[in-house]
Write a structure and sequence with these properties.
This protein has 263 residues and is mainly α. It folds into 2 domains: 96 residues, no CATH class; 112 residues, no CATH class. It contains 7 helices and 2 strands. It has a two-stranded antiparallel sheet with strand order 1-2. Helix 1 packs antiparallel against helix 4 and helix 6 packs antiparallel against helix 7. The structure holds NADP nicotinamide-adenine-dinucleotide phosphate. NADP nicotinamide-adenine-dinucleotide phosphate binds next to helix 5, helix 6 and helix 7.
Length: 263
């Protein structure tokens, strides 16, 4: 099948999956982290056997780094400066997410993640990587990013939004990791900084990262990935927020789930 056709089918397939994923996750949060053992219950069997959580993160996120790099390298514009710069942006996030974040997170002793979660994530991360990497470096599939693009307000604005999101996401992840000492397994109310406004500033940062990417690449692939991220993480933010309110009677009442003052 021609690459154009594969691109089109993948893009439309993921677009149609967005409302389905959003609807399912609103009712049934993915069974990892705090939503795995709701009130002591085990995740349903169909989520599959558990694998160590650190390995699950490496397994599910590394295709977004390695797969993306391979697909990008196959393109005829892979050595051009602007696509290379955009590759660097992407990898600045995904090398961290795939190989640094899993080592730094404070995993509960013995915690596992059901196999179905990394398996589904591998498939969707490869699809997203194909769409975005080929947009950058395959001239049959994406726009031409020549050096004039570096001065375009969409590129400059997109990079700034990406950088802001990157900072928020990393800082929030680090503050959450600091809530547990090594070997601890409980949860605490996060305090300070953006946590005073929302329960999930890490997801807010993620939304800004991919908004910045969509603007800086000004591409259907970038826009789709933003929509995909929102479809996954808005329901999870709402579920996390509900969970905090259920677990902690003293949870700050004015805190929102993910968008300050709004949601
Ligand atoms: N692009 C995407 O679609 C996508 C999808 C998923 C995740 N992500 C990103 O991946 C990162 C992690 O996501 P996540 O869903 O695992 O985030 P999370 O639920 O906030 O958990 C992050 C880490 O902090 C721990 N933690 C969270 N709240 C805590 C608390 N109150 N007290 C003590 N420890 C706490 C968690 O432990 P437990 O695991 O034990 O709960 C986990 O190790 C985020 O930056 C997120 O944006 C991106």
């Amino acid at each position: 099948m021609a690459a154009e056709r594969v691109f089109e089918l993948t893009w439309w397939g993921m677009l149609l999956a967005c409302p389905v994923v959003f609807g399912v996750l609103l009712r049934l949060p993915a069974a990892y982290g705090r939503h795995k053992n709701v009130q002591g219950a085990q995740p349903a069997r169909w989520w599959g056997p558990g694998i160590p959580t650190r390995w699950a993160w490496i397994l599910m996120e590394s295709p977004s780094s390695i797969g993306f790099a391979v697909i990008f390298a196959l393109g005829d514009r892979a050595l051009e400066p602007v696509p290379l710069l955009l590759l660097l942006m992407w990898q600045s996030h995904y090398v961290q997410r795939s190989f640094v974040y899993p080592l730094r997170m404070r995993v509960r002793p013995g915690d596992t993640t059901p196999l179905l979660i990394p398996l589904l994530a591998i498939v969707t991360n490869l699809a997203v990587s194909f769409l975005n990497a080929s947009t950058l470096s395959w001239s049959r599939l994406g726009p031409v990013y020549d050096s004039a693009w570096l001065g375009d307000p969409r590129f400059v604005g997109g990079v700034l939004v990406f950088a802001l999101g990157y900072h928020i996401n990393r800082k929030a992840d680090a503050m959450l990791a600091a809530l547990r000492r090594p070997g601890e397994s409980g949860y605490r109310i996060p305090r300070g900084w953006l946590f005073e406004r929302v329960s999930c500033p890490n997801y807010l940062g993620e939304f800004l990262i991919w908004s910045g990417w969509a603007i800086a690449t000004w591409s259907p692939a970038g826009a789709l990935f933003l929509l995909w991220t929102l479809s996954n993480l808005v329901p999870r933010a709402l579920a996390n927020h509900r969970w905090y309110r259920t677990m902690f009677a003293e949870y700050p009442p004015r805190r929102r789930a993910v968008i300050p003052y709004l949601l």
